Amino acid sequence: MTPLDLGLSLRSFFFHDGAEALHLANASELARREAEKALANAARREVEALRRSGRPRILLGTALDAHGEPYPVELSEREVTLGGHWLVNGATGSGKTFWTLGMLSQLIAKRPRNIVVFDMKGELASLLRRVVLPALVASSHDAYARDLIRRIAVIAPFDDTTTVPFQVLTRDATLPIEVQAHEVAGSFGRTVGRDLGILQQTMLKYALLLAIDVGASFVDVPRILEDRDALRRALERTSLPEVRRYFVERFPRERSGSLVSLLARLDSLLMHPGLRRLLTTPGMIRFDRLLEHAITIVDLGGAPAGMRELGAFFGQMLFQRMVRSIFTREIRANTPPVTIVCDEFQELLSPEMANDAERVLALARSQKCFLWLCFQQAAQVEAVSPLLLRVLAANCNYALQFRTEPRDADRFAPFLHARGNVPRATGGFPDPRERPAVLSAEEERRRVVDRIPTMPDRLAWFANRRRPYGAFVMKTPVLPLGEMAEEAARLPREVREVIEHGVLAVPVDAVDAPRERGRAPGARGAADATPAPPPPTAPAARAPDPPVRRPAPPTAPTMGRRDAEPHGAAVVVQPQHAAPSAAAPADGSGDDGVTGARAGTRAEGDAAAPTNSRRPGRRRPPTIG
Q1: Confidence at residue 441, expressed as pLDDT on a 0 to 100 scale
Q2: Which of 283, 329, 502, 590 is buried most deeply by CB count within 10 Å?
């Protein structure tokens, strides 16, 4: 080949084949970019279609489309409540609590909801009780405001002004008595009594069986174990031969050190006066009714310093009862869904509770119950149950990732969508005949994950696994708490108190007064556990109108009134077991020295039998003669 021929060939290659190759590369890149823009705009087009349909929708935040234009991120109300479980992860102060609060306020403002809120630290529950719900009542029309007030049930064990019916040993007719005793003993053993031995656990279970059978309360259990006369009278009335056999034959031979250790742990639980009051208020909340007709707020914040296990004890007992109610729910075509929010979820966990959570995540969808799990670090969950994290990843359809530590950011990587067109930095001039170098899918996700720990507040990655476009960044809405507080302040103080404490609340004075008169509140019979309905002609049979936008507000509803419940029995307490008291003499007369008709129900301030008035030293268990 002559030099001229070689030159002509090179010219043809560079100016024809090279141009064609460059054109094909550009066309391919342009097609990829157009496809990427179409996918990035899919979320916006979906929101626009939702708005045109007129269906109720919930605002999640604000995002940017492929052209950099902001648009609202919205889902239909039906998808938010029925679409599946939610997972919200973020560090303290990143915005997850306020985002959850904003979502709940939108749901409640639209129509009556069945919602359960478990808050282990109290921030979410406190804002909901004191700001959001009063503001919604003040801004709603009268009929909805009345219905909303009647639906609010608050369980706050560490509240100093009110309590609720929470006698955990009230006989539950839906369970075998052995299972009921095992649940209470298990919650106690996983929290307050973590280091109890097998002998102490056996003592506690038999004492709980005896207390349930004779109608005693949890506060009575220490006196049954240490007071010979109270134990003898309880055994005379029990209908359980195996319990009588244990206390007559085996209990006197148990080591006294085991009994002293068990009593010390029971004292640590009953040391708080509010908890003693809660455990002796007659009746027991029924979660099956709460799931169907109420906005239930379980506020476990406010535990005294160094006594965090007390909140875990009540939280685990309530969570177990809720799980049982979920799976006994009767489902029909018109059965409403239940939204269950668990803030600081990791504080509630134990290995047994993790098993319950895994079961709910896997099976509760068929019962129309959906979890919203909020926590700070996945490592806190993994420390209790590594399997639970895998179940969360497999069963949560929606995930929000706020600012968090690097390991949690790594767990969010599978939710990210790799675009496949992020250029890789290369040296020198690119060859026009080759495709531009781009990052691999793993490298692209890694670049995003490395930025999550430094994201600002209120910025979150949102992933909807029911959509093909992967996760994207959005800014969460601002919750106008100042304006809501001003709106709530328009309500009279009495109405705000009813909203803050719920319709199940019983004033502390009403519980303490029987003790001051020498009679424990637990001594009431089954007829006293649920107040009798008012006469048909009595005006109190209706819940009074809340003073919403009226110049002359009516009287506020009364806390603890069962006639104010929607649908006849939205939040009711289970009637107390009518068995004779453990501490009452056989002839029904006289006083047993334990103040009233229940074994171990001690009057506060009673010098003769204070809660922690045991003599130091080792003692033998009481012997039944």
Answers
A1: 74
A2: 502
